[in-house]
Amino acid sequence: MSSGIVYLVGAGPGDPTLITLRGVECLRKAEVVVYDYLANEQLLTHAPEGAERIYAGKVGGRHNQGQEEINNLLVEKGLAGKVVVRLKGGDPFVFGRGGEECEALADAGIPFEVVPGVTAAVGASAYAGIPLTHRDVTPSVAFVTGQEGKGKEESTIDWNRLSLGGGTVVFYMGITTLRHNMLRLIEHGRSPATPVALVRWATTERQQVLVGTLADIADQAETSSFKPPAVTIVGEVVSLRKKLRWFDTRVLCDTSIIVTRSAEQSGEFSTKLTMAGATVLECPTIRLVKPESWQLLDLAIRELANYDWLILTSVNGVRYFFDRLDFHGLDARALAGCKICAVGPRTAEEIRSRGIKPDLIPTDYKAEGVIDEFSRLDLRNARILYPRADKARDVIPQGLQQRGAQVDSPVAYRNVFPERLPPETLFALEKRSVDCITFTSSSTVQNLAAMLGEEMMLDMLKGVTVASIGPITSQSCRDLGLKVDIEPETHTLEALVAALEKHFG
Question: Which of 194, 222, 312, 422 sits at 20 to 30 Å (Cα–Cα) from 142?
Answer without folding.
Answer: 222
